[in-house]
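agent> Task received from the user: take the single chain below, predict its 3D structure, and emit structure tokens. No templates, no multimer pairing.
agent> Plan: (1) validate residues, (2) run structure prediction, (3) serialize to tokens, (4) report one or two observations.
agent> Step 1 OK, no nonstandard residues flagged.
tool_call: predict_structure(input=
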Amino acid sequence: MKISEIATTHLQTIRYFIGRNHQNQGYSQVQQLEMDEYRKPGRFEPTTTVMVTGGSSNEESANNELATNEAVGHGLQQIEARKVHWYSYLTTADFWIVLLMGQLLALCITATNTFSTFLANFGTSIPAFQTVFTYILLSLIYLTYTLYTYGPIKYGKILLKDGWKYFILSFLDVQGNYFTVLAYRYTNILSAQLINFWAIVCVVIISFLLLRVRYKIFQILGILICCGGMGLLLASDHIQGTNGGTGENMLKGDLFALLGATCYGLTNVFEEWYVSKRPMYEVLSFMGLFGMCINGVQAAIFDRTSFQQATWNGQVIGYLVGYTLVLAFFYSVVPFLLRIASAAFYNISLLTANFWGTIIGIHVFGYTIHFLYPIAFVLIIVGLAVYFLAGSMLGESKKPWLGDNQEEGVAGFGTAKLKALNMARKQGMVTGTGAENGTEGIIA
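)
tool_result: status=success, residues=444
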């Protein structure tokens, strides 16, 4: 080889490494290796187009599942390989969707509390009985649709196999509602709301231990900022003397509030796990079915005397209808937030409910607003934004318990799996339609 050829070869090698290092600037070594692998010629070229269908046999179904997982893997790699800034997720539609969705749910909580206050003013305090109508409505909507989609035989098989899991989820949900309402009978508002912070602690601990969620420093900081904002709300209530005074039995009420917050935390984490793996309508159908039975039994036992002493007129019926519709809507929206974000974000989003309650109370009950309220609200919103700083473009939609390619998850609205499949479609790697589940197809 001539000296000039050797020099040219060395020069090309140096240019290659300099160019690669420039392209990979800002990425970790693992990301650099992945990107080098995917820069190879033909790696991202859709040489094969996979048609994902329901499949007519077990072999075809298995092939479709493997093809789907491969497409999801390619889509996730492309989404996560994007070079992002620390604030990039805040500019996505997903962030604004979960932010608005969280405040919508906080407004729903405020509305249900307002309807409960109206009922109490009429002497109608039947917490278990008034909630049973919500579970009945959920059953009418989602159980009917699930039976239509699956058919009675398939639904029966799921009931026999996974029914006990859904029963536990429904039981925890019902007890969370019941004990939280019961706590307000014995303790004051300030004490009960302080103890409700325990639900956030439960969610973080359980998600860390059972679901292998690893929180980033900005997520922990965001949670602390939101809790600080809630602390200002409670402080303003104490300053104004609107914390409810001394309760009938503070210790008893605080224990009920602690139990209710624990049940809520467990419910939120388990529901996030369920809706990430199964279709949303299936989860809500079982929650409605079992919740109706469990809550109905509790209402018959504990609300029998209150039901007989309650006032019944047109206004009371109207408030019950409003309470039922709002709470059913609340239950229908929660799964989408849990898919796009997480149980932790869901809980800190609801901290603004006190602020919205005061805004409504100004017009309905003649409340006056303290100057700390707007400051606290802004602080909570800032905390929600900080929670998503320095995250990936997938936010929290990629769940660690579903596998690297989310192979154990459902391809439903808001999931990382569906985002990856849509990315693969753009590359021409996947086409087709299917039902909302993890193995039988793709929901568009």
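agent> Step 4: summary for the user.
Confidence is low (pLDDT under 50) at residues 1-35, 37-56, 433-444.
agent> Done.
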